[in-house]
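Lab meeting, item 3. Inverse folding demo.
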């Protein structure tokens, strides 16, 4: 009898603990910046469990990137990824889509429309695989335009760029003159699929995040000059893996992120020129990188506590960001197990 009563007490305590735990968790938004070796895969999970994955990493490698995405989705307790937003049709973004669909249920795809690089064999491969998946009839598909707000309840995702078009009007609360529009030396023009990337501003209470996929420098400037249509940002996913083709001072210094994160690989992204621009950004508190950048060497890499993967064999470590409606957020590094917190301003 006594054992039974004790078990009952333990059971009730466990239930209470579970309830308290979920109530605390349920107020925050989680963002997983998954290591896909210089591609993109960023998973957002809202307090009520709605989910949006930005891109699916590369194809090949026995489903390495899809496996990493599934691991993050399971860590978040998901049964299904509600939305998969394909920024554009390069293989480091859409490549892993088939392998992911084989491994995990997906609801709706969001994309920028047609493949705008139909003569490039590599791009065509990614596009064709995606078309084949859509033809199965299992999934919904929405092609977006700038200004669209995604049908997600707890977080506001506003499309800022899509199919080569940009927001016409500033997002609510933005629209100030940008003091960072001085002419600077520009990188070579980029008229590949990058130019058509779907990018967005995500607002969760006071917390604001910007992710523009791989859009080139010129479009970043057009989006932020002379008027800054985005406003100030707490968290910046560095454009185009932190490559020097993007990350213009006009945009980066205009949106003035508190924290920036490069989704780079050891040999892709993390260009010294872009690293310097981000590092100089006014008010920047930290610059995270998914990888040590070989190109950056010691002078253009953040200290190791801000790196998920160090120089050496690939370990697939990731960052998990937890954001709260009052604007406070934290960044957890799966390699070190340590969390850095950024209290609300
Ligand atoms: Zn890319």
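The presenter then showed the designed sequence:
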């Amino acid at each position: 009898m006594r054992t039974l009563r004790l078990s009952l007490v333990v059971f009730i305590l466990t239930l209470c603990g579970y309830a308290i735990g979920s109530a605390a968790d349920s107020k925050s938004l989680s963002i997983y910046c998954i290591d896909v070796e210089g591609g993109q895969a960023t998973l957002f999970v809202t307090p009520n469990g709605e989910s949006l994955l930005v891109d699916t990493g590369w194809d090949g490698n026995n489903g390495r990137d899809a496996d990493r995405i599934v691991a993050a989705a399971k860590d978040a307790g998901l049964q299904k990824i509600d939305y998969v937003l394909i920024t554009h049709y390069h293989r480091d973004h859409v490549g892993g889509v088939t392998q992911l669909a084989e491994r995990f249920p997906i609801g709706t795809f969001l994309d920028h429309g047609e493949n705008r690089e139909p003569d490039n064999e590599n791009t065509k491969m990614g596009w064709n695989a995606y078309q084949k998946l859509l033809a199965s009839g299992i999934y919904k598909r929405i092609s977006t335009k700038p200004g669209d707000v995604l049908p997600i309840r707890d977080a506001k995702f506003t499309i800022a760029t899509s199919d080569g078009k940009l927001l016409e009007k500033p997002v609510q609360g933005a629209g100030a003159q940008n003091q960072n529009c001085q002419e600077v030396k520009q990188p070579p023009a980029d008229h590949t699929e990058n130019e058509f990337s779907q990018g967005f501003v995500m607002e969760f209470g006071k917390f604001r995040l910007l992710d523009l996929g791989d859009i080139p420098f010129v479009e970043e400037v057009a989006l932020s000059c002379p008027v800054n249509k985005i406003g100030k940002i707490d968290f910046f996913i560095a454009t185009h893996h932190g490559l020097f083709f993007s990350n213009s001072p006009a945009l980066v210094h205009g949106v003035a992120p508190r924290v920036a994160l490069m989704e780079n690989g050891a040999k892709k992204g993390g260009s010294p020129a872009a690293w310097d621009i981000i590092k100089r950004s006014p008010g920047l508190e930290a610059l995270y990188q998914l990888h040590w950048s070989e190109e950056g060497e010691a002078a253009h890499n953040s200290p190791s506590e801000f790196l998920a993967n160090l120089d050496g064999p690939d370990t697939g470590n990731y960052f998990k960001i937890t954001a709260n409606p009052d604007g406070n957020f934290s960044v957890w590094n799966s390699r070190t197990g340590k969390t850095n917190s950024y209290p609300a301003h």
